[in-house]
Amino acid sequence: MTASSIFGGSEAARLGVLGAGQLGRMLALAAHPLDIECIFLDPAESACAVDVGKRLRAEFDDTKVLQSLAAACPVVTLEFENVPAATLDALSAHTTVWPPQQALAVAQDRLLEKQLFQRLGIPVGPFATIDGPQDFSAAVDAVGLPAILKSRRMGYDGKGQAMVERAEELPQAWQTIGEAPAVLEGRISLQREISMIAVRAQDGEMRFYDASENLHRNGMLVRAQPRPDEALAAAARSHTGAVMEALGYVGVMAFEFFVGPDEQLLANEIAPRVHNSGHWTIEGAHCSQFENHIRAVTGLPLGDTGTRGACVMINLIGRVPERRAVMGVPGAHLHHYGKAPRPGRKVGHITLTAADMAALKENEAAVLALLRGSTGNHAD
Amino acid sequence: MTASSIFGGSEAARLGVLGAGQLGRMLALAAHPLDIECIFLDPAESACAVDVGKRLRAEFDDTKVLQSLAAACPVVTLEFENVPAATLDALSAHTTVWPPQQALAVAQDRLLEKQLFQRLGIPVGPFATIDGPQDFSAAVDAVGLPAILKSRRMGYDGKGQAMVERAEELPQAWQTIGEAPAVLEGRISLQREISMIAVRAQDGEMRFYDASENLHRNGMLVRAQPRPDEALAAAARSHTGAVMEALGYVGVMAFEFFVGPDEQLLANEIAPRVHNSGHWTIEGAHCSQFENHIRAVTGLPLGDTGTRGACVMINLIGRVPERRAVMGVPGAHLHHYGKAPRPGRKVGHITLTAADMAALKENEAAVLALLRGSTGNHAD
Predict the structure, then answer these.
(1) Model ipTM?
(2) Which chain B residue lies closest to A38 (C-alpha atoms)?
(3) Which domains does chain A carry?
């Protein structure tokens, strides 16, 4: 068995996955038809990927369990980016881990991430480093107000962030984010947000999906739609490719961008994993982001990232509405994550497919009518 | 909880499935995104659906296990048609079983099946009943030679059949099929074979996929392709709908037809389940036959049966070829059933999707080149 492939013979292959949430669940659903079994490592009591794969329940620093996982799996990957470096070190000593550790190091730290973007000539908005109260004043001077204070590490879905409208609010914001090393980001005139989902193989081949136009509410993604005619897609591909090459990346990566009023891209952040804004690729592309991630990390050839017809993805936040109503909308594909309902929790998504944009729009209106009042995140 | 739906509240629902082969595996993969868990009953040591669902390992006449299955599952369905009537009786006493028992009774007996077709005015080829040697001579007189002797019950994929070229071969053919009650079918001038995959809901609504053009080798399906322009589709829909209504059918049913030289349909047989010739619906239709079967039997609204672009399904028989080569063909979707290789065994299928028929043809040629010599079933 070579390092480049997990397929030694005719036997089923095993892929280790750190984390066992909905992304892991959808990875496993894509892996089964390839005869690849996912083995998850996750300490959480409820981990919705366990319905579709084996799970080792242990903390990420459990050396013994990490050794078992490495022994069982010729390749280990992950479905969330905040894996401790020590975990990756322990695994890397015994097996192959994709994406590479430096991709996680960058994605885990907003400062390193912005510095990488700058080094690669990718435009970023104004920002300043804040290591403590001594930096407050210079940071405000540098980026202006209003601004957003974000902890450098462990930011996810709006957590670890605080708005700063006036300079005197900074101490409170600093407390809110846990007095951790942070960056202060100047507010940018944001028109819209797009993301580029891409995949890079072990031999360096890269493929890109159509740019996704994303809508957020309360810091969470609520809607994503492929935009085959996206004028900025070429720049997004170029930036995404540059980051993947710089990091020696293998697997699927998402790059989120702000689009300014001048229709210029500003880098927001990367996610070194399959991404919510790429869920439409399950039905909307020839080969989904989940299958392409598995293909890349296991050494299989990349699949076709081309878009198939019109589609839109709508997140289900808080709870899944009555199945019969949602599934009665033409072209509705329900993806229920099997998670208990909880306010603000991503519990599923719906992808709508249709022959054309007019039909799609009508069907989306029907879904949104069903969701209104149900999740509270789809007001329009 | 009503009889018409398995969704009592917000909890995950459970669907019982008799049989745990590849059809069960693909049912379970379609069920997970709907938060429906499949619980299989199958006595076989190797049952490839166990990777994606729970399995009760017991014989189909194990009353105790049947009671457990019925207690756990508000609806039970099946993935193969030769379920003993006593099994269905035992289950029906405690839970809902779809499709209905009479559909299985008809599908299990070639004579009852042909009689139903005749009663509904659906053309069938010449046939005669053979209950023993006393019927040989009259049967040959009635249908002519050459002919095919088929046992009335338990016929599947070319088993239980024997060719009869001359009258004196009939005793040998009779032995070959186990001296069981049979029908002798006159050979028809067969130009091609099509099937109609359809789904019927509990409220009687019916939806039909595009007709599938099917190619068989050695009595096994090797290739299936949707034919949106199939001139005979209207007749196939009409016949399929008539059978489903006559049987009070709920779920997905397949109806296989011969197409004669005069472009007339002749009924071959029905399968009261998801069907190999409908596997292309996973990528090639908005809602797959697997999801639509689950929707129908669990009381959810039916999904869109419309075709999405060009596609073709190619069976993998005997063994799955080297994954890397097959998956390198553009638009190739591998469906590996996780079964051990064995000559003549269906171990997987590949569906090719493409933007147009020209690209599809080229990619199919590439797959067939890889399969040639590998399975021995794809000579052209």
Answers:
(1) 0.92
(2) B51
(3) 3-97 (3.40.50.20), 126-186 (3.30.1490.20), 192-371 (3.30.470.20)
